[in-house]
Amino acid sequence: MVWTEKSLAWFDRAAARTSFYQQIVQQCSGLLAPETRVFDLGCGAGFLSMALAPAVQRVAAVDINPRAIAFLREKCQEKNLSNVTCQVADWHRWEPEQPADVVFLCYCDGLFSQMEKLRTLVKKYLVVVLPVIKNNFHLEEFYPLPTQHPNRETIPRVKAFLEKEQISFQIMPLSCEFGQPFSSIGEYEEFLHFYYRIPRTSIPPAYTAQYLHPSNGGYYLSNFKESGILIMKSDDLHKGTWVG
């Protein structure tokens, strides 16, 4: 994710319209308790961290991007969330004083390349949230996008990896709307150019007609996100044959 002042503002508005993060917390409620300590690795703007905060003792939100962490700090102050620690760090090299009860990786690669590191960070459970398929707001249905990050982790790829390495896991589906509000058509066009480099004149009219809808005096680009939640016990991570 590219974090700029503009992209953070877009993401903030999108997060306000989705139940995605709340659903993660609900589906993982059996792992969480008032005394639970959590790491949210590669937390980005920190919306999962903020959703987790009321359910646990402490959340350490870690991301390498200072702008994203500054945004999260400000949000936590606005919401009076005093139990979220915001840390600018590359979690691959981050050395906390002790592991967390539950570690979350939400739409953040690292399971394939950082298994040994994750084993040192997880005390009880590792929770990995990933897309079933990479979905770019359904643009591929109308516009030939260049292939980006072909090795990006997805639920099918990670599931096959865990089965091959004989690491036990539980999997739960997570599907919900996670679209993007806009104040104007111009902002919609700016968004598509910012993320996908689509010139304004090249946006397929059929795409706009199907997925962009009037909403609350502006517009809403619908996007149904199909994801999965993988849960692994710490003991099972250590039983796996993967050594990196």
Automatic annotation (TrEMBL):
Keywords: Transferase. Residues 38-122 form the Methyltransferase domain. The keyword Protease does not apply. The keyword Transferase applies. SUPFAM superfamilies: S-adenosyl-L-methionine-dependent methyltransferases. This is Methyltransferase domain-containing protein. It comes from Formimonas warabiya.
